[in-house]
Amino acid sequence: MTLTLQYNGQTPIPVEVEGLTPDAVRGMSLPEIERFEIQHGNQKLPLKEFFQVSGEASDGRIEFCGDLSGVHWIGTGMTEGEIQVQGNAGRHVGSEMTGGAIYVDGDASDWVGGEMHGGLIHVRGRAGHLVGAAYRGSRRGMTGGTILVAGEVGNELGHTMRRGLIAVGSAGDVVGFNMIAGTILVFGDCGIRPGAAMSRGTLGFFGTRPPLLPTFRAAGRCRPVVMSLVMRQLEELKYRFDPAIKSAEFDLYHGDLIEGGRGEILMRV
């Protein structure tokens, strides 16, 4: 039976559940889980102060229910298992996770998959800024795994990304800023300065064609085989997109020339 956590908190102060992951509570009894300490502002309080706990944790699955937009760090650092959020979620969903899967049925706030190393995050609504990004001052952002967001996301998507796959409905400014490697796909609108300071990696724009910086140069038209493979992966993960993309042609650009010009941007024709 799945461990179910029904959020009953009514507080404007952030609630942080860092460390409450399937691997951390596996084997715990319900009373032990109810005593699991979480952060409420500058206080540590037992989980039962904010959640009604039911079910059991042996199957490695946790289901959060309710409006958790003020609950942060859900699934941070998780290594295995599955987390389902039946509603909205706060900041840092899946930050630094290395394995397992997180599904958010609503929207999520900033830092979804911040410095993520592996696993899957699928947000079926929207997400905030800095999805899959590096923390301020850090040398690397996302280094592995997959992040899928059905709707729009904010600015600095994939900031300093090193490896992995991100697919979103639409995005704000500076997608792939300082990108080291990996793949970012945007299926709708996109803001300004995509790929600024990228050294390697692939950006794919399948909706509107954002204006590029002058440090990118055209490299011809192509139909890359790798795109059909990536689209097949997205289909297997039940991510919805226009199937015509699988056979589309793309204009290829290389850049950022300031950083050596080994990155690539693909724009659907």
Tell me what the structure shows.
With 269 residues, this protein is mainly β. The protein has a domain at 110-268. It is 8% helix and 31% strand. The protein is built from three helices and 17 strands. It has helices spanning 22-25, 30-34, 225-236, and strands spanning 3-7, 15-16, 37-40, 43-46, 51-54, 61-65, 71-72, 82-86, 101-104, 120-123, 143-152, 163-170, 183-186, 202-205, 217-222, 250-255, 263-268. The chain has a 13-stranded mixed sheet with strand order 5-1-6-8-9-10-11-12-13-14-17-16-15. It has a four-stranded mixed sheet with strand order 4-3-2-7, with no helix packed on it. The chain is elongated, with a radius of gyration of 19 Å.
Report helical residue fraction.
under 10%
Q: Measure the end-to-end span.
A: 49 Å
Using only CA atoms, what is the Rg?
A: 19 Å
Report the portion of residues in β strands.
Answer: 25-35%
Q: What is the makeup of the main sheet?
A: 13 strands, mixed
Count of alpha/pi helices: 3
Tally the beta strands: 17
Helix/strand class? mainly beta
Helix/strand order, N-terminal first: EEHHEEEEEEEEEEEEEHEE
The whole-number mean of residue pLDDT values reads: 96
- Strands of the widest sheet, in order across it, are 5-1-6-8-9-10-11-12-13-14-17-16-15
